[in-house]
Amino acid sequence: MKNQINFILILITFISTSNAQNFQNRLETIDVQNYKLSIAVNDTTNSIKATMAISLKFKKIIPEFTLDFIKKDSTGKGMEITSIFQNRDSVTYTHTTNKLIIKSNKIKTDSIYTYTISYEGIPKDGLIISNNLYGDRTFFGDNWPNRAHNWFPCVDHPSDKATIEYIITAPNYYQVIANGFEVEETNLNNNLKQYNYTSNIPLPTKVMVIGIAKFAVQNIGETHNIPVSTWVYPQTKENGFYDFSTAKDVLNFFIENVGEYPFEKLANVQSKTRFGGMENAGNIFYFEKSVTGKREHEDLIAHEIAHQWFGNSATELDWPHIWLSEGFATYFTNLYVQKSLGEAAFQERLSTEKEEIIAFHKKQQTPVIDYFSTNLMSILNPNSYQKGGWFLHMLHHKLGEDTFWKSIQLYYDTYKFKNATTDDFRKCIESVSNSNLEDFFHEWLGQSGHPILKTSWIYHQHKLRLIIDQVQENDFKFPLDIELIYTDGTSEIKTIQVTNKFAPNEISAKSEVKDIKIDPNNYLLFELIKD
């Protein structure tokens, strides 16, 4: 068994190293400071014309560096470069299928260099140019997880965050939304309008977007000095303004519990995103049919707003830690539901999510921190969302209310505008709780599965003899609440510590026990099976 464990650890390390190599090399060599994207769209073709000025620092002297960028192919889609300059000097480059390799010219490590890349083409992905459900033409960025390089050159990985400025030229009957705040709007000749948006907050490329469409826009005021607005198709104006009017209440909940809102504004936008919602920084995109006039998706709104703190501001360093984004958004949505709709709604969500975790594990036995999956879309699964959220629920119970929130606030305050790993999160929790949580994190996040329990019990002379038999492969240690239900109609809860796979327990009872409930308050992620 020891040799087998060592082999598995070596395999995990190899796969992890292989998957991380590209981003790690760039993390150690270049650091993008700012993107300035000038882009023009039109209604004649799907082709865009753009110039991207990328300001970056070199961490070491290197002869060349690599950006992610899709090249035009035989289908006619992709981008064709017309020129690249380093500051004012032309530089040589190689553009392959999805990489742009640029020769560096007389660089130093204490300076910022701006590489200006001019290009044009039809985006293969990332910038979705199509008609909306009413037949109107729209242009929507949809970058997650690494699709931004389909329409602008970049380091398309969450580890390299940068500020961004947009100069967007479009026909003047469109409105434009983008990250940051609008600093200029100018009418041009030929029925064109130019919009200038700037974000001074460093962002990962996965949440850098623009939206160009015919919109009905409602400014619904400020909360905590943050302007909140709704952007929906004109045909859905009344329903959309009603559906998204709850955003201020959601925003208040997270500001008051987690910390200061990290971005310049909050805009909720009806869009062509392929996802139910996409948490783009400061301007969240929702799927077209989310607008119903019935407020059916308040939990989705809460989920995407939670991402503004977790995923957008405090961002996972690499994809295996995606639960720091999705698991957090899942659990904090549940906490918002608990506050707004009550305990029963909260418990219903926990129970549903538990069922989804168990069902997923029957199909795929991978840990939450997943170094094996190379298809990034596949990591959007119940491990990252529901199990990550359930881990936080168990951590919440383990730490208690006050310590839990202080820990979350410390983690966010430490890593806002930065990147973090699971270990970074754990160390923050340990510093507040003054405890060692390595085993707890490993059991629930670093290995697959959950406790699968078979139980049996017998009552005799004020003693309940209870056997807990864990039948799953991996080891788990956990406190387990047992509710003793007495023949006189009363009940009480006793807590036992389960530390072995097969655990006989003797529990004192005040009178005759007629039944028991395992984990009556829904604190533990587990599966109960019967003979």
What does this structure look like?
The protein has helices at residues 2-27, 237-243, 247-257, 298-307, 323-341, 343-363, 383-399, 401-415, 422-433, 438-446, and strands at 30-40, 48-58, 64-68, 78-86, 89-90, 93-95, 99-103, 112-122, 127-131, 137-141, 162-171, 175-178, 181-187, 192-203, 210-213, 216-223, 226-232, 266-271, 277-278, 283-287, 315-316, 419-420, 452-460, 463-470, 478-486, 491-498, 502-508, 513-518, 527-529. The protein has 531 residues and is of the alpha+beta class. The protein has four domains: 30-214, tricorn interacting facor f3 domain (Immunoglobulin-like); 217-308, Zincin-like, CATH 3.30.2010; 315-446, Neutral Protease, domain 2; 452-529, Immunoglobulin-like (Sandwich). The strands form seven sheets. It has an eight-stranded mixed β-sheet, with no helix packed on it. A five-stranded mixed β-sheet has the order 16-17-18-20-19. It has a four-stranded antiparallel β-sheet with strand order 9-10-15-12, with no helix packed on it. Strand 19 and strand 20 form a beta hairpin. It is elongated, with a radius of gyration of 26 Å. The two termini are 29 Å apart. 39% of the residues are buried. Residues 1-19 have low confidence and may be disordered.
